[in-house]
Amino acid sequence: MLVAQPCCKASKGSGTYSAGQGRNPPMLGELDLKTLGIALSLVTLSMTLLLSIAAWHAGSEKGLRHWAMGNFALMLGLLMNVNQDHIHHSLSVVLANGLMTLGIGVTWLGVRAFKGTSQPQAGPILAALLVMLLLWIFRFHFDSLTARLGIASIVLATMSLLCARELLIPAEQPLRTGYWLAGGVALFCGLGLTLRAIASLSSLSPTVAISDNPLQSATLLGAMVAQIGLASGFILMTHYRTAMALHRLSERDALTGTLNRRSLYEQALQILSKASETQLPVTLIMLDADHFKRINDEFGHQTGDAVLCHMVARIRQHLRADDLLGRYGGEEFILILPGLDTVSATQVAERIRLGLCNQPWHAEDTPVQLSISLGVACSDQQGYVFDILLGAADAALYQAKALGRNRVELARHPGTAPKDEMALRLLSQFRHNLDV
Ligand SMILES: Nc1nc2c(ncn2[C@@H]2O[C@H](COP(=O)(O)OP(=O)(O)OP(=O)(O)O)[C@@H](O)[C@H]2O)c(=O)[nH]1
Protein backbone atom coordinates (compact mmCIF):
# COMPACT_ATOMS: atom_id res chain seq x y z
CA MET A 1 0.00 0.00 0.00
CA LEU A 2 2.61 2.50 0.99
CA VAL A 3 4.34 2.98 -2.26
CA ALA A 4 6.14 6.21 -2.79
CA GLN A 5 6.76 6.70 -6.45
CA PRO A 6 6.83 10.45 -6.64
CA CYS A 7 7.97 10.50 -10.16
CA CYS A 8 8.86 7.49 -12.16
CA LYS A 9 9.73 9.50 -15.17
CA ALA A 10 12.13 12.00 -13.72
CA SER A 11 13.67 14.86 -15.50
CA LYS A 12 14.17 14.68 -19.21
CA GLY A 13 15.83 11.53 -20.30
CA SER A 14 15.25 9.68 -17.03
CA GLY A 15 13.78 6.22 -17.36
CA THR A 16 10.24 5.06 -16.94
CA TYR A 17 9.16 1.71 -15.56
CA SER A 18 11.48 -0.72 -17.20
CA ALA A 19 13.39 -3.77 -16.11
CA GLY A 20 16.25 -1.70 -14.83
CA GLN A 21 18.63 -4.56 -15.48
CA GLY A 22 22.22 -4.12 -14.65
CA ARG A 23 22.13 -1.91 -11.55
CA ASN A 24 19.49 -3.68 -9.47
CA PRO A 25 20.48 -6.63 -7.35
CA PRO A 26 20.16 -9.75 -9.53
CA MET A 27 16.86 -11.00 -8.00
CA LEU A 28 15.03 -7.67 -7.96
CA GLY A 29 16.62 -6.56 -11.21
CA GLU A 30 14.90 -9.38 -13.03
CA LEU A 31 11.50 -8.00 -12.07
CA ASP A 32 9.81 -5.70 -14.49
CA LEU A 33 8.78 -2.50 -12.74
CA LYS A 34 5.80 -1.84 -14.98
CA THR A 35 4.41 -5.32 -14.28
CA LEU A 36 5.04 -4.82 -10.57
CA GLY A 37 3.22 -1.48 -10.70
CA ILE A 38 0.20 -3.04 -12.40
CA ALA A 39 0.21 -5.99 -9.97
CA LEU A 40 0.33 -3.55 -7.05
CA SER A 41 -2.60 -1.59 -8.48
CA LEU A 42 -4.59 -4.82 -8.85
CA VAL A 43 -3.79 -5.90 -5.30
CA THR A 44 -4.84 -2.46 -4.04
CA LEU A 45 -8.04 -2.68 -6.09
CA SER A 46 -8.85 -6.12 -4.60
CA MET A 47 -8.19 -4.90 -1.07
CA THR A 48 -10.32 -1.81 -1.71
CA LEU A 49 -13.16 -4.06 -2.88
CA LEU A 50 -12.74 -6.31 0.14
CA LEU A 51 -12.79 -3.38 2.58
CA SER A 52 -15.75 -1.79 0.76
CA ILE A 53 -17.78 -5.00 1.01
CA ALA A 54 -16.90 -5.27 4.70
CA ALA A 55 -17.83 -1.58 5.19
CA TRP A 56 -21.14 -2.14 3.39
CA HIS A 57 -22.24 -4.53 6.12
CA ALA A 58 -20.43 -2.79 8.96
CA GLY A 59 -23.57 -1.33 10.55
CA SER A 60 -22.51 0.96 13.36
CA GLU A 61 -18.96 -0.41 13.39
CA LYS A 62 -16.62 2.55 12.88
CA GLY A 63 -13.40 2.56 10.86
CA LEU A 64 -14.20 0.26 7.95
CA ARG A 65 -15.67 3.03 5.80
CA HIS A 66 -12.58 5.16 6.36
CA TRP A 67 -10.34 2.24 5.43
CA ALA A 68 -12.32 1.52 2.27
CA MET A 69 -12.25 5.21 1.25
CA GLY A 70 -8.56 5.54 2.18
CA ASN A 71 -7.69 2.51 0.08
CA PHE A 72 -9.74 3.89 -2.79
CA ALA A 73 -7.77 7.15 -2.75
CA LEU A 74 -4.56 5.16 -2.52
CA MET A 75 -5.60 3.02 -5.48
CA LEU A 76 -6.39 6.07 -7.63
CA GLY A 77 -3.03 7.58 -6.71
CA LEU A 78 -1.20 4.38 -7.60
CA LEU A 79 -3.01 3.96 -10.91
CA MET A 80 -2.09 7.51 -11.92
CA ASN A 81 1.45 7.09 -10.70
CA VAL A 82 2.16 3.91 -12.67
CA ASN A 83 0.83 5.54 -15.84
CA GLN A 84 3.30 8.36 -16.01
CA ASP A 85 4.05 7.64 -19.63
CA HIS A 86 0.50 8.42 -20.61
CA ILE A 87 -0.68 11.28 -18.41
CA HIS A 88 0.68 14.69 -17.51
CA HIS A 89 2.97 14.93 -14.50
CA SER A 90 0.64 17.33 -12.73
CA LEU A 91 -1.64 14.30 -12.41
CA SER A 92 0.76 11.36 -12.30
CA VAL A 93 3.21 12.99 -9.91
CA VAL A 94 1.52 15.82 -8.03
CA LEU A 95 -2.08 14.64 -7.74
CA ALA A 96 -1.11 10.95 -7.49
CA ASN A 97 1.08 11.54 -4.43
CA GLY A 98 -1.53 13.84 -2.93
CA LEU A 99 -4.08 11.05 -3.25
CA MET A 100 -1.72 8.50 -1.72
CA THR A 101 -1.03 10.80 1.21
CA LEU A 102 -4.75 11.41 1.64
CA GLY A 103 -5.38 7.64 1.43
CA ILE A 104 -3.01 6.80 4.27
CA GLY A 105 -4.27 9.80 6.22
CA VAL A 106 -7.87 8.62 5.96
CA THR A 107 -6.71 5.14 6.98
CA TRP A 108 -5.18 6.71 10.08
CA LEU A 109 -8.49 8.49 10.76
CA GLY A 110 -10.18 5.07 10.40
CA VAL A 111 -7.96 3.59 13.08
CA ARG A 112 -8.84 6.46 15.41
CA ALA A 113 -12.54 6.09 14.60
CA PHE A 114 -12.31 2.36 15.31
CA LYS A 115 -10.76 3.10 18.69
CA GLY A 116 -13.32 5.82 19.39
CA THR A 117 -10.72 8.59 19.74
CA SER A 118 -11.27 12.13 18.51
CA GLN A 119 -10.57 12.81 14.88
CA PRO A 120 -8.60 15.77 13.55
CA GLN A 121 -10.41 15.52 10.18
CA ALA A 122 -8.43 18.27 8.49
CA GLY A 123 -5.00 16.70 9.16
CA PRO A 124 -4.84 14.32 6.17
CA ILE A 125 -6.24 16.93 3.79
CA LEU A 126 -3.63 19.47 4.88
CA ALA A 127 -0.87 16.86 4.55
CA ALA A 128 -2.06 15.97 1.03
CA LEU A 129 -2.19 19.66 0.01
CA LEU A 130 1.28 20.26 1.39
CA VAL A 131 2.73 17.29 -0.49
CA MET A 132 1.10 18.44 -3.71
CA LEU A 133 2.43 21.96 -3.31
CA LEU A 134 5.99 20.77 -2.65
CA LEU A 135 5.92 18.27 -5.50
CA TRP A 136 4.59 20.93 -7.83
CA ILE A 137 7.48 23.19 -6.89
CA PHE A 138 10.09 20.45 -7.26
CA ARG A 139 8.67 19.31 -10.56
CA PHE A 140 7.72 22.48 -12.38
CA HIS A 141 9.94 25.14 -10.77
CA PHE A 142 13.08 23.29 -9.63
CA ASP A 143 13.00 19.91 -11.30
CA SER A 144 14.58 17.54 -8.74
CA LEU A 145 13.85 13.84 -8.61
CA THR A 146 15.82 13.51 -5.38
CA ALA A 147 13.72 16.13 -3.64
CA ARG A 148 10.47 14.63 -4.91
CA LEU A 149 11.40 11.12 -3.78
CA GLY A 150 12.53 12.44 -0.42
CA ILE A 151 9.44 14.57 0.22
CA ALA A 152 6.93 11.90 -0.78
CA SER A 153 8.75 9.20 1.19
CA ILE A 154 8.99 11.34 4.33
CA VAL A 155 5.31 12.28 4.31
CA LEU A 156 4.09 8.74 3.59
CA ALA A 157 6.49 7.33 6.21
CA THR A 158 5.17 9.80 8.78
CA MET A 159 1.55 8.85 8.06
CA SER A 160 2.39 5.14 8.28
CA LEU A 161 4.23 5.59 11.56
CA LEU A 162 1.24 7.53 12.93
CA CYS A 163 -0.98 4.54 12.03
CA ALA A 164 1.53 2.20 13.72
CA ARG A 165 1.50 4.35 16.86
CA GLU A 166 -2.28 4.08 17.08
CA LEU A 167 -2.24 0.32 16.57
CA LEU A 168 0.74 -0.99 18.54
CA ILE A 169 -0.95 -0.61 21.92
CA PRO A 170 -1.93 -3.01 24.68
CA ALA A 171 -5.42 -4.37 23.99
CA GLU A 172 -7.59 -7.22 25.13
CA GLN A 173 -7.01 -10.52 23.30
CA PRO A 174 -7.96 -11.54 20.62
CA LEU A 175 -8.37 -7.93 19.46
CA ARG A 176 -4.68 -7.34 20.15
CA THR A 177 -3.74 -9.84 17.42
CA GLY A 178 -5.57 -7.75 14.81
CA TYR A 179 -4.17 -4.48 16.18
CA TRP A 180 -0.63 -5.76 16.20
CA LEU A 181 -0.82 -7.35 12.77
CA ALA A 182 -2.02 -4.08 11.20
CA GLY A 183 0.32 -2.04 13.44
CA GLY A 184 3.30 -4.24 12.56
CA VAL A 185 2.62 -3.81 8.86
CA ALA A 186 2.24 -0.03 9.27
CA LEU A 187 5.54 0.07 11.18
CA PHE A 188 7.24 -1.97 8.46
CA CYS A 189 5.94 0.51 5.85
CA GLY A 190 6.98 3.50 7.91
CA LEU A 191 10.52 2.18 8.38
CA GLY A 192 10.80 1.12 4.73
CA LEU A 193 9.72 4.53 3.53
CA THR A 194 12.06 6.24 5.99
CA LEU A 195 14.96 4.23 4.56
CA ARG A 196 13.82 5.22 1.11
CA ALA A 197 13.70 8.85 2.10
CA ILE A 198 17.20 8.68 3.58
CA ALA A 199 18.54 6.90 0.50
CA SER A 200 16.91 9.46 -1.79
CA LEU A 201 17.98 12.53 0.15
CA SER A 202 21.53 11.32 0.66
CA SER A 203 21.59 11.55 -3.13
CA LEU A 204 23.28 8.25 -3.68
CA SER A 205 22.58 8.69 -7.35
CA PRO A 206 20.40 11.74 -7.83
CA THR A 207 20.58 11.66 -11.55
CA VAL A 208 19.85 7.98 -11.83
CA ALA A 209 16.52 7.11 -13.45
CA ILE A 210 13.98 5.74 -11.06
CA SER A 211 13.79 2.53 -13.03
CA ASP A 212 17.43 1.98 -12.20
CA ASN A 213 16.98 2.71 -8.53
CA PRO A 214 17.63 -0.52 -6.62
CA LEU A 215 14.99 0.45 -4.06
CA GLN A 216 12.18 0.68 -6.56
CA SER A 217 11.38 -3.04 -7.00
CA ALA A 218 11.68 -3.58 -3.26
CA THR A 219 9.29 -0.66 -2.63
CA LEU A 220 6.66 -2.05 -4.98
CA LEU A 221 6.95 -5.58 -3.56
CA GLY A 222 6.86 -4.28 0.00
CA ALA A 223 3.81 -2.17 -0.83
CA MET A 224 1.99 -5.26 -2.14
CA VAL A 225 2.70 -7.24 1.02
CA ALA A 226 1.70 -4.22 3.11
CA GLN A 227 -1.60 -3.81 1.27
CA ILE A 228 -2.59 -7.40 1.96
CA GLY A 229 -1.28 -7.30 5.55
CA LEU A 230 -3.05 -4.04 6.45
CA ALA A 231 -6.40 -5.01 4.93
CA SER A 232 -6.22 -8.42 6.68
CA GLY A 233 -5.35 -6.71 9.95
CA PHE A 234 -8.33 -4.34 9.65
CA ILE A 235 -10.73 -7.16 8.78
CA LEU A 236 -9.41 -9.20 11.72
CA MET A 237 -9.79 -6.22 14.09
CA THR A 238 -13.42 -5.79 13.07
CA HIS A 239 -14.11 -9.50 13.26
CA TYR A 240 -12.56 -9.90 16.70
CA ARG A 241 -14.35 -6.87 18.09
CA THR A 242 -17.72 -8.12 16.82
CA ALA A 243 -17.01 -11.58 18.21
CA MET A 244 -16.08 -10.08 21.60
CA ALA A 245 -19.23 -7.93 21.65
CA LEU A 246 -21.38 -10.95 20.81
CA HIS A 247 -19.71 -12.98 23.53
CA ARG A 248 -20.33 -10.19 26.03
CA LEU A 249 -23.98 -9.96 24.95
CA SER A 250 -24.42 -13.70 25.28
CA GLU A 251 -23.43 -13.61 28.91
CA ARG A 252 -25.32 -10.50 30.01
CA ASP A 253 -28.90 -9.75 30.95
CA ALA A 254 -30.27 -7.35 28.33
CA LEU A 255 -32.06 -5.02 30.77
CA THR A 256 -29.70 -4.68 33.71
CA GLY A 257 -26.35 -5.63 32.18
CA THR A 258 -25.71 -8.09 35.00
CA LEU A 259 -24.58 -11.65 34.23
CA ASN A 260 -27.35 -13.86 33.00
CA ARG A 261 -28.18 -17.05 34.83
CA ARG A 262 -26.07 -19.37 32.66
CA SER A 263 -22.87 -17.32 32.77
CA LEU A 264 -23.33 -16.55 36.47
CA TYR A 265 -23.53 -20.30 37.08
CA GLU A 266 -20.41 -21.00 34.96
CA GLN A 267 -18.34 -18.24 36.54
CA ALA A 268 -19.51 -19.11 40.04
CA LEU A 269 -18.42 -22.73 39.51
CA GLN A 270 -14.94 -21.54 38.57
CA ILE A 271 -14.69 -19.28 41.62
CA LEU A 272 -15.92 -22.05 43.93
CA SER A 273 -13.56 -24.61 42.49
CA LYS A 274 -10.54 -22.28 42.94
CA ALA A 275 -11.67 -21.32 46.43
CA SER A 276 -12.14 -24.94 47.50
CA GLU A 277 -8.50 -25.59 46.58
CA THR A 278 -7.24 -22.67 48.66
CA GLN A 279 -9.96 -23.04 51.30
CA LEU A 280 -10.74 -19.32 51.05
CA PRO A 281 -14.38 -18.50 51.87
CA VAL A 282 -16.96 -17.61 49.22
CA THR A 283 -20.39 -16.14 49.97
CA LEU A 284 -23.51 -16.39 47.89
CA ILE A 285 -26.21 -13.78 48.51
CA MET A 286 -29.66 -14.06 47.01
CA LEU A 287 -31.65 -10.84 46.99
CA ASP A 288 -35.12 -9.96 45.89
CA ALA A 289 -36.98 -6.64 45.57
CA ASP A 290 -39.89 -6.33 47.99
CA HIS A 291 -43.40 -5.75 46.69
CA PHE A 292 -42.08 -5.18 43.23
CA LYS A 293 -45.46 -6.00 41.73
CA ARG A 294 -46.83 -2.91 43.48
CA ILE A 295 -44.25 -0.70 41.78
CA ASN A 296 -45.21 -2.13 38.40
CA ASP A 297 -48.91 -1.77 39.13
CA GLU A 298 -48.59 1.76 40.45
CA PHE A 299 -46.02 3.27 38.07
CA GLY A 300 -46.04 0.95 35.05
CA HIS A 301 -43.57 -1.60 33.75
CA GLN A 302 -41.22 0.96 32.21
CA THR A 303 -40.71 2.55 35.61
CA GLY A 304 -40.35 -0.95 37.03
CA ASP A 305 -37.55 -1.60 34.54
CA ALA A 306 -35.85 1.67 35.46
CA VAL A 307 -36.12 0.78 39.16
CA LEU A 308 -34.42 -2.56 38.47
CA CYS A 309 -31.54 -0.78 36.69
CA HIS A 310 -31.28 1.71 39.56
CA MET A 311 -31.23 -1.17 42.01
CA VAL A 312 -28.36 -2.85 40.13
CA ALA A 313 -26.40 0.42 39.95
CA ARG A 314 -26.76 0.88 43.71
CA ILE A 315 -25.74 -2.71 44.44
CA ARG A 316 -22.66 -2.34 42.25
CA GLN A 317 -21.46 0.55 44.42
CA HIS A 318 -20.77 -2.00 47.17
CA LEU A 319 -18.99 -4.59 45.02
CA ARG A 320 -15.34 -5.20 44.26
CA ALA A 321 -13.90 -6.01 40.83
CA ASP A 322 -13.90 -9.79 41.45
CA ASP A 323 -17.46 -10.01 42.79
CA LEU A 324 -20.17 -11.41 40.52
CA LEU A 325 -23.66 -10.00 40.17
CA GLY A 326 -26.20 -11.95 38.13
CA ARG A 327 -29.91 -11.84 37.49
CA TYR A 328 -31.50 -15.06 38.62
CA GLY A 329 -34.93 -14.15 37.25
CA GLY A 330 -37.48 -11.31 37.48
CA GLU A 331 -36.51 -9.06 40.38
CA GLU A 332 -34.26 -11.66 41.95
CA PHE A 333 -30.44 -11.33 41.84
CA ILE A 334 -27.47 -13.34 43.04
CA LEU A 335 -24.16 -12.08 44.34
CA ILE A 336 -21.00 -14.18 44.58
CA LEU A 337 -18.44 -12.64 46.89
CA PRO A 338 -15.10 -14.46 46.86
CA GLY A 339 -12.94 -14.14 49.96
CA LEU A 340 -15.76 -13.00 52.26
CA ASP A 341 -16.77 -15.08 55.27
CA THR A 342 -20.19 -15.05 56.93
CA VAL A 343 -19.49 -12.04 59.13
CA SER A 344 -18.08 -9.71 56.48
CA ALA A 345 -20.58 -10.85 53.84
CA THR A 346 -23.45 -10.10 56.21
CA GLN A 347 -22.05 -6.60 56.69
CA VAL A 348 -21.89 -6.10 52.92
CA ALA A 349 -25.48 -7.39 52.58
CA GLU A 350 -26.64 -4.98 55.26
CA ARG A 351 -24.87 -2.05 53.57
CA ILE A 352 -26.55 -2.92 50.26
CA ARG A 353 -29.96 -3.12 51.92
CA LEU A 354 -29.52 0.22 53.68
CA GLY A 355 -28.15 1.86 50.55
CA LEU A 356 -31.31 0.95 48.67
CA CYS A 357 -34.00 1.64 51.24
CA ASN A 358 -32.49 4.94 52.40
CA GLN A 359 -32.38 6.52 48.97
CA PRO A 360 -35.68 6.27 47.10
CA TRP A 361 -35.61 6.39 43.32
CA HIS A 362 -37.56 9.23 41.69
CA ALA A 363 -40.00 8.56 38.87
CA GLU A 364 -40.13 12.13 37.59
CA ASP A 365 -41.08 13.95 40.82
CA THR A 366 -42.62 11.03 42.65
CA PRO A 367 -40.34 9.09 45.00
CA VAL A 368 -40.50 5.32 44.53
CA GLN A 369 -39.69 3.61 47.81
CA LEU A 370 -37.78 0.41 47.30
CA SER A 371 -36.55 -2.21 49.70
CA ILE A 372 -34.93 -5.60 49.29
CA SER A 373 -34.66 -8.83 51.25
CA LEU A 374 -31.44 -10.83 51.28
CA GLY A 375 -30.44 -14.39 52.11
CA VAL A 376 -26.75 -15.03 52.86
CA ALA A 377 -25.00 -18.40 52.59
CA CYS A 378 -21.25 -18.79 53.06
CA SER A 379 -18.95 -21.65 52.14
CA ASP A 380 -17.47 -21.67 55.66
CA GLN A 381 -20.74 -23.25 56.80
CA GLN A 382 -22.28 -24.65 53.62
CA GLY A 383 -19.24 -25.89 51.65
CA TYR A 384 -18.29 -25.14 48.07
CA VAL A 385 -21.11 -26.78 46.10
CA PHE A 386 -23.01 -24.14 44.15
CA ASP A 387 -26.45 -25.79 44.37
CA ILE A 388 -26.13 -26.24 48.14
CA LEU A 389 -25.12 -22.60 48.63
CA LEU A 390 -27.96 -21.48 46.39
CA GLY A 391 -30.52 -23.62 48.24
CA ALA A 392 -29.33 -22.31 51.60
CA ALA A 393 -29.42 -18.66 50.46
CA ASP A 394 -32.86 -19.20 48.92
CA ALA A 395 -34.18 -20.61 52.20
CA ALA A 396 -32.68 -17.64 54.07
CA LEU A 397 -34.33 -15.26 51.61
CA TYR A 398 -37.70 -16.92 52.22
CA GLN A 399 -37.13 -16.44 55.90
CA ALA A 400 -36.37 -12.74 55.38
CA LYS A 401 -39.60 -12.38 53.39
CA ALA A 402 -41.61 -14.29 56.01
CA LEU A 403 -40.21 -12.18 58.82
CA GLY A 404 -41.44 -8.95 57.26
CA ARG A 405 -39.03 -8.20 54.34
CA ASN A 406 -36.42 -5.43 54.09
CA ARG A 407 -33.93 -7.50 56.08
CA VAL A 408 -30.88 -9.74 55.83
CA GLU A 409 -31.12 -13.36 56.99
CA LEU A 410 -28.28 -15.83 57.39
CA ALA A 411 -28.65 -19.37 56.07
CA ARG A 412 -29.00 -21.86 58.85
CA HIS A 413 -26.00 -24.04 59.61
CA PRO A 414 -26.45 -27.44 57.89
CA GLY A 415 -25.89 -29.15 61.27
CA THR A 416 -28.83 -27.43 62.96
CA ALA A 417 -32.34 -28.76 62.76
CA PRO A 418 -34.48 -27.28 59.97
CA LYS A 419 -36.28 -24.68 62.01
CA ASP A 420 -39.89 -24.65 60.88
CA GLU A 421 -38.78 -24.25 57.30
CA MET A 422 -42.12 -25.29 55.92
CA ALA A 423 -43.91 -22.90 58.27
CA LEU A 424 -41.68 -20.04 57.14
CA ARG A 425 -42.31 -20.78 53.49
CA LEU A 426 -46.03 -20.86 54.11
CA LEU A 427 -45.85 -17.63 56.06
CA SER A 428 -43.84 -16.02 53.29
CA GLN A 429 -46.35 -17.21 50.69
CA PHE A 430 -49.22 -16.01 52.87
CA ARG A 431 -47.69 -12.54 53.23
CA HIS A 432 -46.93 -12.50 49.53
CA ASN A 433 -50.53 -13.34 48.63
CA LEU A 434 -51.83 -10.67 50.98
CA ASP A 435 -49.14 -8.32 49.68
CA VAL A 436 -48.11 -7.26 53.17
N1 LIG B 1 -40.83 -4.00 35.17
C1 LIG B 1 -40.43 -5.25 35.29
N2 LIG B 1 -41.08 -6.07 36.10
C2 LIG B 1 -40.64 -7.33 36.25
C3 LIG B 1 -39.53 -7.82 35.53
N3 LIG B 1 -39.36 -9.12 35.88
C4 LIG B 1 -40.31 -9.43 36.77
N4 LIG B 1 -41.10 -8.36 36.99
C5 LIG B 1 -42.28 -8.23 37.85
O1 LIG B 1 -41.88 -8.37 39.19
C6 LIG B 1 -43.05 -8.72 39.92
C7 LIG B 1 -42.70 -9.77 40.94
O2 LIG B 1 -43.81 -9.93 41.70
P1 LIG B 1 -43.91 -11.01 42.81
O3 LIG B 1 -43.17 -12.26 42.42
O4 LIG B 1 -45.36 -11.14 43.12
O5 LIG B 1 -43.11 -10.42 44.02
P2 LIG B 1 -43.19 -9.04 44.78
O6 LIG B 1 -44.36 -8.22 44.35
O7 LIG B 1 -41.84 -8.41 44.68
O8 LIG B 1 -43.44 -9.50 46.23
P3 LIG B 1 -42.42 -10.12 47.27
O9 LIG B 1 -41.29 -10.72 46.48
O10 LIG B 1 -43.18 -11.13 48.01
O11 LIG B 1 -41.98 -8.99 48.10
C8 LIG B 1 -44.08 -9.20 38.91
O12 LIG B 1 -45.10 -8.24 38.81
C9 LIG B 1 -43.31 -9.28 37.62
O13 LIG B 1 -44.11 -8.95 36.50
C10 LIG B 1 -38.86 -6.92 34.65
O14 LIG B 1 -37.87 -7.24 34.00
N5 LIG B 1 -39.33 -5.66 34.56
From TrEMBL:
Chief location bin: membrane
CC cofactor: Mg(2+)
Segments passing through the bilayer: 36-56, 90-111, 123-142, 148-168, 180-199, 219-240
Keywords assigned by UniProt, alphabetized: Membrane, Transmembrane, Transmembrane helix
Cellular component terms (Gene Ontology): plasma membrane
Catalytic activity of the protein: 2 GTP = 3',3'-c-di-GMP + 2 diphosphate
EC number: 2.7.7.65
Superkingdom in the source lineage: Bacteria
Alphabetized CDD domains for the sequence: GGDEF
Entries under PROSITE patterns matching the protein: GGDEF
Keyword Heme part of the UniProt annotation: no
Single annotated GO MF: diguanylate cyclase activity
GGDEF domain residues: 280-413
Compartments reported by the entry: Cell inner membrane
Gene3D superfamilies tied to this protein: 3.30.70.270
GO biological process assignments: cell adhesion involved in single-species biofilm formation; negative regulation of bacterial-type flagellum-dependent cell motility
Pfam families, per the entry: GGDEF
NCBIfam families: GGDEF
Name under which the protein is recorded: diguanylate cyclase
Source organism of the structure: Halopseudomonas laoshanensis
Organism lineage: Bacteria, Pseudomonadati, Pseudomonadota, Gammaproteobacteria, Pseudomonadales
